[in-house]
């Protein structure tokens, strides 16, 4: 994510090169939400992975935050056209959470406290591409930005990085989520500007 | 606390692009809890990739509207029905159309 090559004109890869087409650089961190902010007490919080075979893997808050964490520094891109570069997070890699999960499913449906859903191929959650993030810029993740924990999948438009994440259902068939059933692109690659279903 | 939503009057402009009638003046029935009330009283979350109108009773989604560059997507699954006030109807024409549809 942070390995850049020099362009053929010999200049260091700069901010312009890190902005996908149609995006502008935001200095603040806009709060987007499709509904009221859920407030989930940590002693009642849990994260689950449900497999296509009906097996449930479950983590409490204490269990999740006791797992080995990473501190990714990533660029994020919202479909409403703002991008932020070099944001820093702390979270547990999905690779860690999937270590003991047996599945042949190709698809994941992420669901959140408050009812939000978003879908993506399971491959896009693995191999160092996604985290359950619970700290942002050195602070606990606030509820307005998805705290206590949100999915972080920075290589896709940010609506895929579900706030208030509650779990992942593994599916053998793709199941479009909240925005994917309302005109937004099923995959959402910012570098291919996959904003709407027709793109 | 700072409000995070608007009222349903915020839907009037965007829906006027699609419907000739003023849908914000309609009465909707929530598909989740059955609450009936004016569309203008829905809670509209607009700081989002689209407009999300929620029931003031149960907070479930009643209506979603996404406006792309050359199309709009409208989801009304959360509404059992909309009662849209209209003037000058011709009931005979409606009955004739309904009969034809039922017989097909």
From TrEMBL, chain A:
CDD domains: arch_bact_SO_family_Moco. Residues 1-22 are annotated as: Disordered. Residues 35-179 form the Oxidoreductase molybdopterin-binding domain. Transmembrane segments: none annotated. It comes from the Bacteria. Pfam families: Oxidored_molyb (PF00174). Gene3D superfamilies: Oxidoreductase, molybdopterin-binding domain. Coiled coil: none annotated. This is DMSO/TMAO reductase YedYZ, molybdopterin-dependent catalytic subunit. It comes from Microbispora rosea.
Automatic annotation (TrEMBL), chain B:
It holds the Pfam family DUF6510. This is Uncharacterized protein. It comes from Microbispora rosea.
